[in-house]
């Protein structure tokens, strides 16, 4: 053990090494020619001037700010009167524009419904769209392919492809099921082998699904945790309370996948999503049963993911979702027909369920729970990467959160869940230069979040228009 006289020197050395490590990890790799085609600026030093800064913490917007980006990091940020652009810096005037952290979205997929019960693998187009929409970090909430998510993560990290940083979730951990593209684990031993295999293959997180048993879920969680990885779940056969006791880290679709309040729920049996949702629709967010579940989830450190976008597509009277024009004509027409059918169902349970989901998410958050955001491009289609991430932030405002709260849920909270809030998720000196330039003021008018003009990932500025143009009209093919 060092003597006390050596501690200051050791602390300084440790601090220098920590900063050097952060700079090394934040700095963008050498980009391939393919990626360079979508880059608007990659100057060594960039000064963003006259910007309105919305830092992602929930703090009020700060006008007339200058941000200095160097070596993939935010190296200075402050009032324009104090912070001057360094000599030789590329200066980008952002008068009338806002800078927010890159979105950190935790229920995304690289697949999309392309036919009855079949999902097309669209990783190439989806990663570009996510980045174009302002998503700089994402988790694939389960995959139907196996290796694509992992390989795309590696390619993006290496600068070979354009896209967000990916927390690559392994194929679903599920029990016997009806899905054509999903494996089944029958017991705890198989669940452990599933987790061990995919962790060794490069997956960085896991997701349990609707038909899993408590024994298999507990084994999967234990195996993942021994490897330092987290487990989320879209559950049904296992209740939220049971999953919390087993140590799950995250639950998907906020409370809309909960079967805790189904009166005749049998152990390890999924009563059907409809039964769970009927019970949720009738639930009193001010009643003791709900409050008790919330208290338990918070005490156990379980985060919830809001995915209002996918449920909006099931709800009559809602507008057509943004981004449909990037789909192939066939997929666009397919969803428009679905949307028209949904609009005719004036007795749909979703007319009550969507506002109930919003109320329960507010109650969970106000009680101190960690709410994160995602979109879930599944269902019947219509949830388009990038566009839907912006729409999710808007829907959080519709749910009763302030614009600043909605932005924080979609940036800082996601980073906190991932354990990466020391490097991403808010705009602070020393953090990675993952940020989004929008035309307008989303702290006042949340719809301005759709006006993305430039997306910085590790200090490299990508052109969203070029990313979108590269796939427009062909999403569904690759």
Using brief descriptors, characterize the structure shown.
globular, alpha/beta, 478 residues, 2 domains, nine-stranded mixed β-sheet, five-stranded parallel β-sheet, TIM Barrel
Walk me through the structure:
It is globular, with a radius of gyration of 22 Å. It is built from 16 helices and 19 strands. The longest helix has 20 residues. Helix content is 35%, strand content 19%. A hairpin with a 2-residue loop joins strand 8 and strand 9. Helix 5 packs parallel to helix 6, helix 8 crosses helix 12 and helix 13 packs across helix 14. It has 2 domains: 113 residues, Urease, subunit C, domain 1 (Roll); 315 residues, Metal-dependent hydrolases (TIM Barrel). By secondary structure, the chain is an alpha/beta fold.
From the N-terminal CA to the C-terminal CA, the straight-line distance is 57 Å
Helical content, roughly?
25-40%
Number of strands: 19
Rg calc: 22 Å
CATH superfamily (homologous) name of the largest domain: Metal-dependent hydrolases
Structural class by SSE content: alpha/beta
Strand content: 15-25%
Low-confidence stretches: 1-21
**How many structural domains?**
2
**If classified by CATH, what would the architecture of the largest domain be?**
Alpha-Beta Barrel
Count of discrete alpha- or pi-helical segments spanning 4 or more residues:
16
The residue-averaged pLDDT reads: 94
Categorize the overall geometry.
globular
Main β sheet profile: 9 strands, mixed
Please write the CATH class name of the largest domain. Answer: Alpha Beta
Instruction: Examine the coordinates and then state which fold CATH places here, giving the name of the CATH topology of the largest domain.
Output: TIM Barrel
């Amino acid at each position: 053990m060092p003597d006390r006289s050596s501690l200051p020197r050791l602390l300084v050395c440790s601090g220098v090494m920590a900063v050097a490590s952060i700079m090394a990890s934040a700095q963008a790799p050498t980009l391939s020619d393919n990626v360079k085609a979508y880059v608007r600026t990659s100057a060594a030093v960039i000064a963003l001037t006259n910007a309105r800064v919305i830092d992602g913490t929930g703090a009020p917007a700060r006008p007339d700010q200058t941000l200095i980006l160097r070596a993939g990091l935010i190296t200075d940020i402050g009032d324009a009167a104090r912070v001057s652009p360094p000599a030789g810096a590329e200066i980008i005037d952002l008068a009338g524009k806002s800078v927010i952290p890159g979105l950190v979205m935790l229920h995304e997929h690289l697949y999309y419904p392309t036919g009855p019960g079949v999902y097309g693998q669209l990783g190439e187009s989806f990663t570009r769209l996510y980045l174009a929409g302002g998503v700089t970090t994402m988790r694939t909430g389960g995959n139907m392919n196996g290796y694509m998510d992992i390989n795309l993560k590696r390619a993006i990290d290496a600068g070979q492809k354009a896209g967000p940083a990916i927390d690559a979730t392994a194929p679903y951990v599920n029990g016997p099921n009806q899905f054509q593209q999903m494996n089944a684990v029958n017991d705890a031993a198989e669940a452990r082998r599933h987790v061990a295999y995919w962790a060794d293959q490069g997956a960085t997180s896991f997701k349990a699904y609707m038909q899993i048993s408590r024994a298999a879920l507990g084994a999967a969680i234990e195996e993942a945790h021994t490897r330092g990885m987290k487990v989320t779940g879209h559950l049904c056969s296992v209740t939220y309370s049971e999953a919390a006791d087993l140590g799950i880290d995250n639950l998907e679709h906020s409370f809309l996948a909960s079967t805790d309040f189904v009166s005749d729920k049998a152990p390890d049996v999924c009563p059907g999503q409809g039964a769970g949702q009927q019970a949720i629709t009738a639930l009193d967010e001010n009643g003791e049963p709900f409050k008790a579940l919330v208290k338990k989830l918070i005490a156990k450190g379980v985060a919830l993911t809001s995915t209002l976008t996918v449920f909006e597509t099931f709800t009559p009277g809602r507008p057509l979702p943004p981004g449909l024009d990037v789909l192939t004509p066939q997929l666009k027409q397919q969803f428009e027909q679905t949307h028209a059918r949904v609009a005719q169902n004036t007795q749909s349970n979703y007319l009550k369920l969507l506002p109930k989901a919003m109320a329960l998410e507010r109650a969970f958050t106000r009680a101190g729970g960690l709410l994160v955001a995602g979109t879930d491009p599944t269902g019947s289609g219509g949830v388009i990467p990038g566009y839907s991430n912006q729409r999710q932030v808007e829907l959080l405002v519709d749910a009763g959160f302030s614009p600043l709260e909605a932005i924080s849920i979609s940036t800082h909270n996601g980073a906190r869940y991932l354990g990466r809030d020391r490097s991403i998720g808010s705009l602070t000196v020393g953090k990675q230069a993952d940020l989004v330039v929008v035309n307008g003021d989303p702290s006042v008018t949340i719809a301005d979040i759709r006006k993305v003009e430039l997306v910085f990932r590790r200090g490299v500025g990508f052109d969203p228009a070029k990313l979108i143009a590269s796939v427009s009209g062909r999403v569904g093919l690759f």
